[in-house]
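Limitations
The structure tokens in this dataset are predictions for the assembled complex, not deposited experimental models. Users should treat interface geometry with appropriate caution, especially where small molecules or nucleic acid strands are included. An illustrative entry is reproduced here so readers can see what is and is not provided.
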Amino acid sequence: MHSRINSKHSYKLIFIIFAALFLVYGCGSRSNKENVLELKDNSQPDTLSMLVKFENSLFPLPSPYQAATLIKKKNLPFDENIASPLDNYKNFSTAFKKALNLGIYGTDLSYLNIYDRTPESISYLSVIKNLSDQLGISASFDESFFSSVEKNINNKDSILVLLSKTYRNTDSYLRVNDRKNIGALILAGGWVESLYILTKISKVDSDREIVNRIGEQKHPLDNLIEILTPYYYKSQEFSTLIDGLIDLAYEFDGVIYSYSYKEPKIDVEKKIIYINSESRVVLSEYHLETISKKIEAIRNQIIG
Amino acid sequence: MKIKLTYFILIASSLLFLSRPASAQVEQLQNICSLYFSPEYISDGQEYFASLKPDQKVEFRTTFYGDNTYRIVACTNLKKGDLVFTVFDTEKNLLFSNASYNYSQYWDFKFASTITCIIQVDVKNIKFTPGFVMLLIGYKP
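Predicted assembly:
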């Protein structure tokens, strides 16, 4: 009888200990809620599987730094008036503005980097560091980041790799810490600035590839709007930004796209596949002009 | 009674393990995925992280620019189950599936033209226990 009571007592005690530990690790963090699946009913239900939609993770944007890579390829002259003025950063009083401009300055840095504008690049890095401190994400832009940048300051590609990795780490940190709205704004700023730079350059040199790249922003813009939409009612600032992007998206409806599938070729040994399908973009002068004006207006509102 | 107690401790320990913070899971996946993300590739600045159960798929659309080479890395932190990522064009033509290539954790894609693709990720193993997957996309400058 005595041993039966003791076993029962041990059983209860162990259960209480594990339950307490479970509560601490399993439910203590708000960020765990972020990873709860949002199971979505597909309009065309797949009986074999369920489609999972994870907030904001399913709307990737191409890297804004690819605009810089394209510009570099075209050997276009440097325009010192393109990058967003650094002095403005002192006027950014809200997290909304700081996050957007963190994205903008990152894209500007990629632009300066391809033209070996080292002193300016260092200044932009300094402001990026400042803004990240103010947003509480300075862990990504820590000493090891800056010492790596210093070591690689003359290597354009290494800087882009470092910068992208850091922005990716920041994106991850913000998601895990339930600050996805800030992550979304950084992405938005980066994309807005890359399109702005492309439209500015197209006025100087209407290179076909540059103009096509502008026209190809339709789907990335759709994805960006999807990323931001959950925050539409969060503040007036958010709704103004999203309304501006939706208005811009209407202009892309005037862009003509054509696509034809061609069988890809695969090199198994090199683990590479060559996608030979062809696409074509036709962007009229009218739509190019309207897109340029609208993106400039959105960008000016962000940096002002 | 001893057997019952041992059984109970094992179940409770498993629950405790599964409930550990998402940040630890993210970090673990970052370490795994980074093994396949070579330094010559520039990240698109985002990290795609999701929880999957058997019978679930993750699907999304993204644009790949013409005349560029990309790397897609897909990884999971659980040993059971093969992670499958499949790439379609918007007309649902199959462009690639790693299921045909030994469930390779990564593959490079060179695009002749700018294409919007649909990427699907799921796990092939009915015994797969729920876990996390991560996708990384990068381009070669």
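Some entries come with short summary sentences. For this one: Chain A touches chain B through 75 residues (CB under 8 Å).
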